[in-house]
């Protein structure tokens, strides 16, 4: 029997005989009331740090997680250990959501999982403001720092949410943090350096193999590697590609070769994606050919190989993706079939996320023109289309405006509330005192009921009765919780306060444009760092651990070889240094043909009222980069769209400028 109280609780609540490295230190700090940053390798038990702590803390633990798959996986583990937890997410209907909130209020649920976007939901904010929270947990916490925040721009606002909700304790969890990212995360949440728990990044059972392979030879080499692996182990693997169409093609080729493989990407319907994931987890599918949409939250122990058919987006992505292999501790192979052919595709994702100066200025003019009583209301989809800025990039722009103090998020509300009465009005009103009866009668009187559902008019209710919107929403939530009404809400609108003085700065547009330009260069440098890493002539495993500031690499299983550290099992340590090349020279369209394509684009846009067609817009057209304006005006159907998709963007721009 363990004499360690935490060890005893670990056995009682989770059935584990001992903690993994770093877990006990992180838990001890949290239970002493010290906010903690835990940096553990993928698959090494980060989640237990909050799960264990949550059942010892008096009130709710609120977990922010970036993907539904992560939530579902962790909820299943908690349920198996009889720990009461739930998530409020897109898969939960209104009635289930009400039941969950009721159980949180009563203290029945100890752990609630949400996405960061949930904080912008008016009804959720109304609810969470009324709950005492012991701890805020941020999974994949690197998303709040520079390298990853575009994945979830709203992560940058989590420090403010913590202060607003007066949450005393924070736990940040991540597997991928360089030294600068680590400092950034800790500073944002005032975590002391001594409360950063970082275990070794190195995983001795992963063999990193980089092969320089031409595009023509990739398919055959991929099949060969998988067949070799399956003959040796009869276990599962993941093949990562960049594009959805590549996932479909490769999965079909593997299936034709007798390999039990399926494609997985964001273009497949949700139900089908879930089925593929379930079948993979149950060993009914051997190989999943996936974009980066697959893998987070996958805790499958017998994945024995991960193959990058295309270059990953960054060293951080590479690290996360190979980290899904070998979780049972057995040896696993991590292959990269590398060449430079997809380099332009990776770079084009970056260029497509860099808004033009005129698009940024459009947003600033929209704010100035629409502001009323120093407030501005936003509907993201409409502004994305009008400004020609991708939605995720627009979110990043708005976060930067918040950080500069130009705007401040106040709340988000649903423009439309629909009510269905589950009991007669008279019965509902009879449950309340006279003042509340009068208030609810006004709410019902300003709801336009049809056969079953009624739509509430907040404007007419306010003019007639003067009631605060927050009180109305609280009342409707209460009636729904009591199962007296059913409530539906839609058309989310975000409300910001505006500082007119800061908004009127003549340099603001250029300052924001410079931010995105700098960010573009950082992202391009990150891609180059990835290529440089794959071309290393010294141990890949050691270099990867060093990149992530692993403090323990000197004490881990590296062999000192004349001053250089060797793992002994990566491709470089085996004498195979990769030199990446282009498979073939891509042909350019003839100059007059390129000129014709650009002229047709300009003519098409001018016919739709866009008089100024920038060089950047033309570059993105011939590079095949998707933009809101191209979708809205059906530009993708024009001849020439994507005609230079195999060329580097910088060279495209140089040629078009010469035209």
Give a written overview of the molecule.
By secondary structure, the protein is an alpha/beta fold. The chain folds into 4 domains: 5-198, Rossmann fold (3-Layer(aba) Sandwich), CATH 3.40.50.300; 206-344 and 552-566, P-loop containing nucleotide triphosphate hydrolases (Rossmann fold), CATH 3.40.50.300; 417-483; 591-658, no CATH class. It has 27 helices and 20 strands. The strands form 4 sheets. It has a 7-stranded parallel sheet, sandwiched between helices. The protein has a 6-stranded parallel sheet with strand order 8-13-12-9-11-10, sandwiched between helices. It starts with a helix and ends with a helix. The relative contact order is 0.09.
Strand order of the largest sheet: 3-4-2-5-6-1-7
What is the CATH top level name of the largest domain?
Alpha Beta
Specify the overall morphology.
globular
Biggest sheet architecture: 7 strands, parallel
Give helix % range.
40-55%
Radius of gyration, whole Å: 27 Å
Please give a quick description of this structure.
The protein is an alpha/beta fold and 659 residues long. It folds into 4 domains: 5-198, Rossmann fold (3-Layer(aba) Sandwich), CATH 3.40.50.300; 206-344 and 552-566, P-loop containing nucleotide triphosphate hydrolases (Rossmann fold, 3-Layer(aba) Sandwich); 417-483; 591-658, no CATH class. Strands 3-4-2-5-6-1-7 form a 7-stranded parallel β-sheet, sandwiched between helices. A 6-stranded parallel β-sheet has the order 8-13-12-9-11-10, sandwiched between helices. A 5-stranded antiparallel β-sheet has the order 14-18-15-17-16.
């Amino acid at each position: 029997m363990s004499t360690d109280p935490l060890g005893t609780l670990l056995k009682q609540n989770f059935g584990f005989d001992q903690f993994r490295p770093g877990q006990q230190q992180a838990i001890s700090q949290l239970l002493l009331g010290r906010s903690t940053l835990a940096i553990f390798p993928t698959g090494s038990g980060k989640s237990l740090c909050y799960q264990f702590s949550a059942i010892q803390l008096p009130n709710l633990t609120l977990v922010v997680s970036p993907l539904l798959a992560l939530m579902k996986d962790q909820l299943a583990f908690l349920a198996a250990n009889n720990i009461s937890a739930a998530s409020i997410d897109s898969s939960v209907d209104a009635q289930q959501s009400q039941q969950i909130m009721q159980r949180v209020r009563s203290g029945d649920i100890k752990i609630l999982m949400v996405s960061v976007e949930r904080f912008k939901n008016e009804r959720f904010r109304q609810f969470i403001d009324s709950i005492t929270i012991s701890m805020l947990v941020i999974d994949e916490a690197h998303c709040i720092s520079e390298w990853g925040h575009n994945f979830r721009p709203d992560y940058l606002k989590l420090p403010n949410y913590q202060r607003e909700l007066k949450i005393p304790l924070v736990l940040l969890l991540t597997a991928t943090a360089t030294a600068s990212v680590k400092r950034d995360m800790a500073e944002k949440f005032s975590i002391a350096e001594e409360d950063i728990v970082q275990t070794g990044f190195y995983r001795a059972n992963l063999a990193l193999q980089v092969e320089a392979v031409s595009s023509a030879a990739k398919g055959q080499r991929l099949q060969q590697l998988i067949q070799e692996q399956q003959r040796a182990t009869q276990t599962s693997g993941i093949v990562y590609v960049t594009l959805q169409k590549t996932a479909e093609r490769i999965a079909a080729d593997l299936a034709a070769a007798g390999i039990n493989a399926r494609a997985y990407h964001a273009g497949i319907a949700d139900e089908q994606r879930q089925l593929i994931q379930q079948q993979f987890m149950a060993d009914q599918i051997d190989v999943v050919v996936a974009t980066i949409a697959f893998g987070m939250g996958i805790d499958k122990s017998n994945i024995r190989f991960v193959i990058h058919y295309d270059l990953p987006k960054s060293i951080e992505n590479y690290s996360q993706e190979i980290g899904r292999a070998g979780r049972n501790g057995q040896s696993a192979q991590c292959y990269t079939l590398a060449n430079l052919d997809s380099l332009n595709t990776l770079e084009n994702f970056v260029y497509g996320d860099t808004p033009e100066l005129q698009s940024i200025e459009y947003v600033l003019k929209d704010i100035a023109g629409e502001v009323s009583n120093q407030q501005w209301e936003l509907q993201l989809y409409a502004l994305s289309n009008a400004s020609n800025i991708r939605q995720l990039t627009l979110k990043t722009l708005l976060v930067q405006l918040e950080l500069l103090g130009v705007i401040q998020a106040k709340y988000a509300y649903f423009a439309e509330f629909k009510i269905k009465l589950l009991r007669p009005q008279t019965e509902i009103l009879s449950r309340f005192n006279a003042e509340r009866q009068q208030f609810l009668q006004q709410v019902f009187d300003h709801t336009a009921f049809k056969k079953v559902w009624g739509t509430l008019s907040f404007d007419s209710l306010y003019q007639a009765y003067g009631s605060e919107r927050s009180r109305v929403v609280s009342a409707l939530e209460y009636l729904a919780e009591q199962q007296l009404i059913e409530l539906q809400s839609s058309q989310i609108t975000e409300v910001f306060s505006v500082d007119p003085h800061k908004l009127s700065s003549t340099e603001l547009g250029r300052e924001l444009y410079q931010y995105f330009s700098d960010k573009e260069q950082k992202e391009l440098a990150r891609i180059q760092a990835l290529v440089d890493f794959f071309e290393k002539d010294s141990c890949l495993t050691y270099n990867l651990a060093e990149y992530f500031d692993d403090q323990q690499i000197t004490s881990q299983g590296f062999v000192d070889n004349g001053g250089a550290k060797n793992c002994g099992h990566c491709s470089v340590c085996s004498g195979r240094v990769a030199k990446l090349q282009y498979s073939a020279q891509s042909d350019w369209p003839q100059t007059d043909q390129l000129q014709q394509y650009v002229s047709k684009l300009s003519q098409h846009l001018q016919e739709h009222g866009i008089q100024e067609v920038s060089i950047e817009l033309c570059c993105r057209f011939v590079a095949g980069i998707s933009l809101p304006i191209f979708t809205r005006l059906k530009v993708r159907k024009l001849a020439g769209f994507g005609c230079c998709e195999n060329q580097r963007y910088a060279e495209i721009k140089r040629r078009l400028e010469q035209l």
